[in-house]
Specification:
This protein has twelve helices and 18 strands. The protein is of the alpha+beta class. Strand 9 and strand 10 form a beta hairpin. The chain starts with a strand and ends with a strand. About 10% of the residues have low confidence. InterPro entries: Diguanylate_Cyclase, GGDEF_dom, Nucleotide_cyclase, Rev_trsase/Diguanyl_cyclase. GO terms for molecular function: diguanylate cyclase activity.
Length: about 450
C-alpha cells in the first residue's frame, strides 16, 4: 500500500476526475466541493461532511472501495478506506454532524430573577474597581476584571470578552474564538482549518457573526453541544455612543441553568456600565478637545507602558516630536481661530498617515508627539516620519486672514526622532534626544526629519 498526503480539497479533486465514478456520484462530489469552497463553514452540513460520509458509504457498498468494519459509523470523525485496485489507502479526517442551532433566550428583567446573595454582595463592592490605588483602571483592565469575576461566580470553564470595536477603533481582525482556530473567510477557505479544530461538538463563530452578535444586546444565545453535553453562552455588549462593543463568550461543561444565566446577564450589564464610565473619564482626562487626539498626560502614561512592553520583548520603539514650522506667524496673520484650525487639521493629517498601532498626542502648543509601537527599526521610523512630514506639506490649508480674505497657506513640520534603546532607555532620555534633533531640524532649515547619528 502507498500512503499519500493530500489536502481535503486535493482528495475531492482527484475523486471527481476518476473515470470509474458514476455520473451521479461525480455530481455529488462537485456539490461537496462547492460546499467546501463557498461561504464560511458554519456547520458540517455546509462543509459537505455529512454528504461525503454518505457518498463514501455508497462507494464502499458497490465495491469501489473497501473499508474496515465500523469505519463509516455516524460517530466517527475519521474515515479509513482502501482502493484495492490502485493499492491506495485514504484516511479522511472529518468534522461532526451538524450541531444544534443556537437557542435565543430573552434576557432576564429585574423582576424575573433574584441573584444569589454572594453575587449581589460582590457586585455592590465592585464600584471600587474603577480605581486602583491612585489611578483609574484602563478599559482593558475592566474587561479582565469582568472575565475573572464571572469565572468565579458562574460554572464556566472559560470566560472571554471578544472586542469588535473599542474606543471608536475596529479591533476585530478575524481573530478566532479561543480554542477554535477558524480563519477569516477573506483569508482562506475551510480547507485551511486545522484538522483538530473540526472535532465533535465544536461550535464556530466567524467574524461576521461576532459583528452581528455584538449589536444584539436584547437577547443572549445558547449553543448546546450535540455530543459532549456542554454549552456556550453568548451575549452582546456595548455602548454605541462611546464607540465600544463586543461579544462575551462563556464555555461550560454543563448546560446553563436559570441562576447561571441571570448572573451572567447582570454581571455583564454591571461591568458594561463600569466600562462606559471609564471610557467617559478617559475622554475627559486624556483627550485634547481642540485636536481630538490624546493629550500629554495620556502620552506620558502610555509611553511607560510601551517601554515596559519593549523591554520585556527585547524590541525597539521610536519617539517622534513634531513641531509646526512658523506657527506664530499663522496666529499673527490669521488670528487664534486660524491657528486653532491649523492645529486641528495637522492632527488629522498626522493621524491618518500613521499605522493603526501607533499613538499620536498633542504635547503642548504647536507640538505633537508620536509613539511608533514596537518592533520598529530606525530605517522604518525614518520612513514613517518622512511620510508624516510629506503628508502635512501636501495638505492644502485655506484660511481667512484678519481682513476676512481667504487664502491658501502652506504648512510644514519639523520632526526630531529617537529610538529605544539605542538613543535612550527611559521616556525622559528619549524625549531629550528627540528634542535635540527637533531643535537641530528647526535651526538647519525646517521641514525635515532628523535622528541622532
Amino acid at each position: 500500500m502507498r500512503h499519500l498526503s493530500l489536502s481535503f480539497l486535493d482528495f475531492l479533486e482527484r475523486l471527481r476526475s476518476d473515470p470509474e465514478l458514476f455520473p451521479e456520484e461525480r455530481r455529488q462530489v462537485e456539490a461537496i466541493l462547492r460546499a467546501r469552497t463557498e461561504g464560511p463553514p458554519d456547520s458540517p452540513e455546509e462543509r459537505g461532511v455529512d454528504p461525503l460520509r454518505k457518498l463514501v458509504r455508497a462507494l464502499v457498498a458497490r465495491g469501489y472501495w473497501d473499508a474496515p468494519e465500523g469505519a463509516l459509523s455516524e460517530a466517527a470523525d475519521t474515515i479509513l478506506v482502501r482502493d484495492p485496485i490502485r493499492r491506495v489507502r485514504f484516511r479522511l479526517r472529518l468534522g461532526p454532524k451538524a450541531p444544534k442551532a443556537p437557542e435565543r433566550l430573552p434576557t432576564p428583567s429585574v423582576d424575573e430573577r433574584v441573584l444569589p446573595a454572594r453575587v449581589t454582595r460582590a457586585i455592590l463592592a465592585s464600584p471600587s474597581e474603577l480605581v486602583s490605588y491612585d489611578r483609574i483602571l484602563s478599559p482593558r483592565e475592566i474587561v479582565s476584571n469582568l472575565e475573572r469575576f464571572l469565572a468565579e461566580v458562574v460554572p464556566a470553564r472559560t470566560v472571554r470578552f471578544h472586542p469588535v470595536e473599542f474606543g471608536g477603533d475596529v479591533v476585530s481582525s478575524g481573530e478566532p474564538i479561543e480554542g477554535e482556530p477558524l480563519p477569516n473567510p477573506e483569508e482562506g477557505d475551510a480547507s485551511s482549518v486545522p484538522t483538530d479544530a473540526r472535532r465533535s461538538g465544536r461550535i464556530y463563530l466567524d467574524v461576521q457573526q461576532l459583528e452581528d452578535l455584538s449589536r444584539k444586546r436584547d437577547h443572549l444565545y445558547r449553543w448546546t453541544s450535540s455530543e459532549h453535553g456542554g454549552s456556550r453562552l453568548v451575549l452582546g455588549m456595548g455602548d454605541d455612543s462611546l464607540g465600544w462593543r463586543g461579544v462575551l463568550v462563556l464555555e461550560s461543561d454543563a448546560d446553563w441553568d436559570a441562576d447561571g444565566i441571570s448572573t451572567t446577564v447582570w454581571v455583564a450589564r454591571h461591568y458594561a456600565e463600569l466600562l462606559s464610565t471609564v471610557m467617559r473619564l478617559e475622554g475627559l482626562i486624556f483627550y485634547d478637545f481642540l485636536t481630538g487626539v490624546y493629550n500629554r498626560s495620556f502620552y506620558e502614561d502610555h509611553m511607560e507602558r510601551e517601554l515596559q512592553l519593549a523591554r520585556r520583548r527585547n524590541e525597539s520603539l521610536a519617539l517622534l516630536l513634531v513641531d509646526i514650522d512658523d506657527f506664530k506667524a499663522f496666529n499673527t496673520r490669521h488670528g487664534y481661530e486660524g491657528g486653532d484650525r491649523v492645529l486641528a487639521t495637522v492632527a488629522c493629517v498626522l493621524k491618518s498617515a500613521l499605522r493603526g498601532t501607533d499613538t499620536l498626542a498633542r504635547y503642548g502648543g504647536e507640538e505633537f508627539v508620536v509613539i511608533l509601537a514596537p518592533p520598529v527599526s530606525q530605517e522604518e521610523a525614518s520612513r514613517i516620519a518622512d511620510r508624516l512630514r510629506q503628508a502635512v506639506e501636501q495638505e492644502e490649508f485655506r484660511l481667512d486672514d484678519l481682513s476676512g480674505a481667504t487664502e491658501t497657506a502652506q504648512v510644514t513640520v519639523s520632526i526630531g526622532g529617537a529610538l529605544y534603546p539605542v538613543h535612550g532607555e527611559t521616556r525622559e532620555a528619549l524625549s531629550t534626544a528627540a528634542n535635540l534633533e527637533l531643535l537641530r531640524a528647526k535651526t538647519d532649515g525646517k521641514n525635515q526629519v532628523l535622528f541622532p547619528g
